Amino acid sequence: MQWDGGDPNSGDIVSYEIYIVEVGCFQEDLWAPESKLGEIGPFPGFDTDLEYQIKVDLPLGTYDWGVISTDSRGETRKSPRWRFQRTIFESTKEYLEAWPDYEYIVYLI
After folding, report:
1. pLDDT tens readout for residues 67-109
2. Three-state SS across the chain?
């Protein structure tokens, strides 16, 4: 999971909480405490290219995720609600049809 973070206040330190929820499940409140996946930080506010590696094996499905940032002044901000799908494609053709606007690197073995 990658996003642009940071803080407009010079000199602030920022921490991030990552939330995730499966779309269509009984618990769809993304910002509920039980939806919290993990946290990273603190980072200097000028660090904007952020990434979180999921450390659990999510079942196949569609997920919404978001981030709450908190700076050293205690100010918080919620990200937009982002969506991704975890799926298995039966063939390269099926994959290319599902994601037609992406550039690909093909490895021949």
Report:
1. 999 999 999 999 999 988 887 766 656 655 665 565 544 443 3
2. CEEECCCCCCCCEEEEEEEEEECCCCCCCCCCHHHEEEEEEEEECCCCEEECCCCCCCCCEEEEEEEEEEECCCCEEECCCEEEEECCCCCHHHHHHHCCCCCCCCCCC
Q: With beta carbons less than 8 A apart as the criterion, state whether 31 and 77 touch.
A: no
The Cα 10–Cα 45 span in angstroms is 7
Domains of the chain: 2-98 (2.60.40)
Question: Global pTM?
Answer: 0.73
